[in-house]
Design brief:
With about 150 residues, the chain is mainly α. About 85% of the residues lie in helices and about 0% in strands. The longest helix is centred in the middle third of the chain and has 36 residues. The two termini are about 20 Å apart. The relative contact order is 0.18.
């Protein structure tokens, strides 16, 4: 059973890390090259899609990382803890950082964005660098724990 939990968790952490890296370093730089109206429409479309897709991966990934920490013993304990801590950081950065901003952005009118909207987007991006790094680190720690 512990092998199944480890591999299932590893799979989901990998999917999450990949999704986060593509969004952070693929999609959002491309958005920044669009004109204001198209940028906001695309950002809102991503928010609406990813607010469904990402929780389907991130919540089970976090739960499995915690389950592996409890169920698996032996070498790699510090790395399993590191995976859980970085997943907790990812969740906090999401729920306290990017999610509230995404909710705000989803309510904007793309043809008449609020003053200072670009600074809100830059703030989101700074948080998202930390989020994507945390997701990637959790995956790396889980791989290293599995290998130990």
């Amino acid at each position: 059973m512990s092998n199944f939990l480890q591999y299932a968790g590893l799979f989901l952490l990998g999917v999450l890390a990949g999704e986060e890296l593509i969004v952070r370093y693929g999609l959002h730089p491309a958005l920044s090259r669009l004109d204001e109206h198209a940028h906001l429409l695309a950002r809102q479309a991503l928010v609406r899609r990813l607010r469904v897709v990402v929780p389907i991966v991130m919540l089970p990934a976090a739960a499995l990382a915690a389950a592996v920490l409890v169920v698996v013993d032996g070498p790699g304990l510090a790395l399993r803890w590191a995976a859980v801590v970085t997943m907790a950081a990812f969740l906090l950065l999401s729920f306290l950082g990017t999610v509230p901003i995404n909710i705000k952005v989803d309510g904007w009118r793309a043809d008449a964005p609020p003053p200072g909207w670009q600074e809100v987007v830059r703030h989101w991006a700074r948080i998202d660098v930390l989020r994507s790094t945390a997701a990637t680190a959790a995956f790396l720690f889980a791989i290293l724990a599995q290998a130990s």
